[in-house]
């Protein structure tokens, strides 16, 4: 290679990495704004309910507010950007395969404000889905500022998505691995694109941490557990593997069920789900919200097995109907809270029936988070690293590995498939695409992006 070509390559790399850095900085700021907006809404909504005292009044007010917010989020999404419903991860994967549109401005508006309304109402949805989708759309906007090749464009989309996840959970390493494991079919792997993902993830998480001063958001104090207890965690992983397969099946089934409602009346489920959420906010608040704050409370509490199983069921059903309602929101955080409830139930039962220390409860909760994630998303390495970064429980890296491995193997042998792969296929099917015929098509030119 001649010296001029080396110089050109270096300049080209630098220009691309500057774009990736800009993506990381902008996504970090956007995610911080979204996070702060949600925290403000949670605080104001909680203060309003508390000021109303006891009786029927808090229920009536909560029913009205949550129903209006969820319905408003649904209508906003339908009229501005229907692809902004749900987490958006499948939309990013579809765009990287040139099968889904990239209406970045509309998605940012619908995702940001629709997400504030939906999540602020108390739905069982996480903020990570919207930030991932908004991160990719921010990258899409930046990619239009200069000439980039198709692989570089897809690399920036992946960098934006990773930056969104890194900011949402303050977990840059898990965000990088998420791109490697989850988008391995779509990601155009090269030195340039891979480094872009790393740069964007680091800067996004750094901006979020600097502006919010939030460390590991699910920090859990744990100690080492005996090696023989890994057998119990293997059993827990088998259970979580089956639960993950069922979760994926149930989510798709509920979403398809809602499609049977006439199109002009599909706002009614959003209204009903919002109203029910308003009731639960007062009657059983642990069954509402994304669940980030719930993990600490559950581990520190003395819930019995049956109460934990009830909470598992309520949150399980809550995320199914919240996601299927057609509003913006992710499933990562709710999945972690469901796993915490189920893992704690297993741990409490183990401590009561077996000669094992009470610290095993917390170990089961942490390991279950990774196991359930691995079973549903089918990204076991991401599950391990995500849980480590979220909880800071590095003493449990081996137990979490055991649980994630057995859960993933169980899901595979039960015929389960990754949830976002199923969601993408469903999206393409509803859009009139044939998944089986895509290999025979000429890739769609990036001119499908909005001007």
TrEMBL record:
<dbReference type="InterPro" id="IPR001807">
    <property type="entry name" value="ClC"/>
</dbReference>
<keyword id="KW-0868">Chloride</keyword>
<feature type="transmembrane region" description="Helical">
    <location>
        <begin position="304"/>
        <end position="324"/>
    </location>
</feature>
<feature type="transmembrane region" description="Helical">
    <location>
        <begin position="331"/>
        <end position="354"/>
    </location>
</feature>
<feature type="transmembrane region" description="Helical">
    <location>
        <begin position="191"/>
        <end position="208"/>
    </location>
</feature>
<feature type="transmembrane region" description="Helical">
    <location>
        <begin position="56"/>
        <end position="77"/>
    </location>
</feature>
<feature type="transmembrane region" description="Helical">
    <location>
        <begin position="360"/>
        <end position="381"/>
    </location>
</feature>
<keyword id="KW-0472">Membrane</keyword>
<keyword id="KW-1133">Transmembrane helix</keyword>
<feature type="transmembrane region" description="Helical">
    <location>
        <begin position="393"/>
        <end position="414"/>
    </location>
</feature>
<keyword id="KW-0813">Transport</keyword>
<keyword id="KW-0812">Transmembrane</keyword>
<feature type="transmembrane region" description="Helical">
    <location>
        <begin position="264"/>
        <end position="284"/>
    </location>
</feature>
<feature type="transmembrane region" description="Helical">
    <location>
        <begin position="156"/>
        <end position="179"/>
    </location>
</feature>
<feature type="transmembrane region" description="Helical">
    <location>
        <begin position="228"/>
        <end position="252"/>
    </location>
</feature>
<dbReference type="Pfam" id="PF00654">
    <property type="entry name" value="Voltage_CLC"/>
</dbReference>
<keyword id="KW-0406">Ion transport</keyword>
<dbReference type="InterPro" id="IPR014743">
    <property type="entry name" value="Cl-channel_core"/>
</dbReference>
<feature type="transmembrane region" description="Helical">
    <location>
        <begin position="16"/>
        <end position="36"/>
    </location>
</feature>
<protein>
    <submittedName>
        <fullName>H(+)/Cl(-) exchange transporter ClcA</fullName>
    </submittedName>
</protein>
<feature type="transmembrane region" description="Helical">
    <location>
        <begin position="104"/>
        <end position="125"/>
    </location>
</feature>
């Amino acid at each position: 290679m001649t010296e001029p070509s080396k110089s050109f390559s270096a300049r080209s790399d630098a220009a691309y990495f500057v774009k990736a850095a800009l993506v990381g900085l902008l996504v970090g700021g956007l995610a911080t704004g979204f996070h702060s907006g949600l925290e403000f809404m949670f605080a104001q909504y909680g203060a309003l309910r508390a000021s109303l005292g006891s009786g029927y009044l808090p229920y009536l007010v909560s029913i009205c507010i949550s129903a209006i917010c969820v319905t408003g989020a649904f209508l906003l999404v339908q009229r501005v950007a229907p692809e902004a419903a749900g987490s958006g991860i499948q939309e990013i994967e579809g765009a990287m395969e040139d099968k889904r549109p990239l209406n970045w401005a509309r998605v940012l508006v619908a995702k940001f404000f629709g997400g504030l309304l939906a999540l602020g109402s108390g739905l069982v949805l996480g903020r990570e889905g919207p930030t991932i989708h908004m991160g990719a759309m921010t990258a899409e906007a930046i990619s239009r500022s200069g000439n980039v090749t198709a692989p570089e464009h897809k690399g920036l989309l992946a960098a934006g998505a990773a930056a969104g996840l890194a900011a949402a959970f303050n977990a840059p390493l898990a965000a990088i691995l998420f791109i490697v494991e989850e988008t391995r079919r779509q990601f155009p792997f090269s030195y340039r694109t891979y480094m872009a993902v790393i740069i964007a993830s680091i800067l996004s998480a750094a901006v979020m941490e600097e502006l919010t001063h939030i460390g590991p958001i699910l920090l859990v104090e744990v100690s080492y557990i005996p090696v023989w207890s890994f057998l119990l965690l293997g059993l827990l992983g088998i259970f979580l593997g089956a639960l993950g397969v069922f979760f994926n099946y149930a989510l798709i089934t509920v979403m398809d069920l809602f499609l049977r409602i006439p199109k002009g009346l599909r706002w009614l489920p959003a209204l009903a789900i919002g109203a029910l959420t308003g009731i639960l906010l007062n009657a059983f608040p642990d069954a509402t919200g994304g669940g980030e704050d719930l993990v600490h409370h559950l581990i520190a509490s003395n819930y019995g097995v049956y109460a934990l199983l009830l909470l598992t069921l309520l949150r399980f059903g809550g995320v199914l109907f919240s996601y299927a309602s057609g509003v913006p929101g992710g499933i990562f955080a709710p999945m972690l809270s469901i796993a915490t409830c189920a893992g704690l139930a297993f741990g409490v039962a183990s401590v009561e029936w077996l000669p094992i220390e009470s610290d095993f409860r917390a170990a089961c909760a942490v390991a279950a988070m990774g196991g359930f994630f691995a079973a549903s998303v089918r990204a076991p390495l991401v599950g391990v690293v995500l849980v480590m970064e979220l909880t800071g429980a590095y003493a449990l890296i081996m137990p979490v590995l055991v649980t994630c491995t057995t859960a993933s193997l169980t899901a595979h042998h039960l015929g389960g498939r990754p949830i976002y792969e199923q969601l993408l296929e469903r999206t393409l099917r509803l859009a009139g695409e044939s998944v089986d015929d895509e290999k025979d098509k000429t890739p769609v030119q990036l001119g499908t992006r909005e001007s």
